[in-house]
Amino acid sequence: MYNMITGFLILVLFMIKSQAGATAPVELRGVWLTNVDSEILDSRESIAEAMQFLADHNFNVVLPVVWNDAKTLYYSQTMDSLFDMPIDPCYAGRDPLAEVIAEAHARDLAVIAWFEYGFSSSFEKDGGMILSKKPAWAARDRIGGLLTKNGFEWMNAYHPDVQKFIFKLVSEVVANYDVDGVQGDDRLPAQPIEGGYSNYTRNLYFSETGKYPPQNERDPTWQEWRAKKLNTFVAGLYRQVKTVKPRVLVTWAPSIFDWSLHEYLQDWPSWLRSGNADLLIPQNYRYSFYEYMQTVNDLNAQYLGIPDNLLSKIYPGILINVGDYCISEDFLSRCIEYNRTMGFNGEVFFFYEGLRKNDDALAKMLRSKYYRRKVKRPF
Asked: What is the rounded CA–CA span in Å between residue 188 and residue 165?
């Protein structure tokens, strides 16, 4: 009798353990790595220390910037041939992307290369190096001025040479580095609603519609035409990446919908519907829990117009630090709990330095409450 009871208990414990293993959580626990207001990419040693810190706190994805301020953080044959600048001079003699990949993969952290600058050419530099050498690449507003929004100046996202340039930047990273994914954000692909008035784009619109663009940049037909051009770019970039290396993920981190569509022509629900997004990380950046909750509520299939099964590809982005702002532990806790309540199994934080503020307070809280153990990634 004793042996029967013991055997039964062992069987029950085995079944419980097996069931627990079968239902082990799958979560995306990511963080963006920047080269602005951060020294993490300044040396191999600081990169290694950061990757160990993230592994110790049970993160599983890092998203290092590789394209910022019109410079690359890796050796770029494209930038070398076009602009005689193979890498940001700050990193001459080094390759930060290669270093991040080596240190991250050694600790089972996936690496998604983040092309932060997207179609921007400069910030408060009148177009900067790119447009000084390639003036035909400039995007224009309705009075013919250089397209500028919030200080950023823009290349023309509808120009084939500009698109080819971005294709090459992304493709060389995919081909030459062991990345797990690539990512565009609120500037890739994007174009401020005020743009589209370069001679090239005006003539393209006329050739396809028989009309020149209206002076009202928010005219619905004109807005839809431009958004669809960006959708076509998304599809082309997705195909290009998969052609070069099929296993590499194509991910996007756009602004929240539908503000993204009405300000930057990012119709990202259509990117999901068309099968051109392996992961979608909307920037749900808000400074109060109520506002954050509203943005998460809008991440539903009915509002986005996508099938229910595609919601599993969406993971909210959370702002934890920018400038002097650092999110409170309570606010962050409520955001994560609300994500799980709404069925979103993971999040990505902007940005790494926020985890280290106040004696690593946010990282310690995450490790003790939500990221207690390592989990599988959703890819």
From this structure: 13
Return the ∠ at Cα 284 (arms to 280 and 286), rounded to 5°.
170
Residue 16, pLDDT > 90, answer no
Alpha helices in the chain (DSSP H): 2-22, 44-56, 77-83, 96-105, 128-133, 160-176, 199-209, 220-244, 259-264, 268-273, 289-297, 301-304, 329-341, 353-369
Report the topology of domain 29-369. TIM Barrel (3.20.20)
Residue 135 neighbours by CB distance under 10 Å: 10
Report residue 305 as tokens: 């117009």
Predicted model pTM: 0.93
DSSP code for 218:
T
pLDDT in tens, 298-351: 999 999 999 999 999 999 999 999 999 999 999 999 999 999 999 999 999 999
**Which tens digits make up the pLDDT trace of 39-72?**
999 999 999 999 999 999 999 999 999 999 999 9
**d(Cα 286, Cα 296) in Å, to the nearest integer?**
11
10-26 exposure pattern, b = at least 16 Cβ within 10 A, e = fewer: eeeeeeeeeeeeeeeee
Confidence check: pLDDT of 222 > 80: yes
- The stretch 273-280 carries a mean pLDDT of 98
Choose among 207, 186, 342, 203: nearest CA to 253.
186
* Of residues 70, 100, 96, the one with CA closest to residue 84: 70
| Helix pair angle (44-56, 96-105), 10° resolution | 30
- The domain locations on the chain are 29-369
Name the β-bridge partners of 31. 62, 349
For tokens 């960006």, name the residue: 230
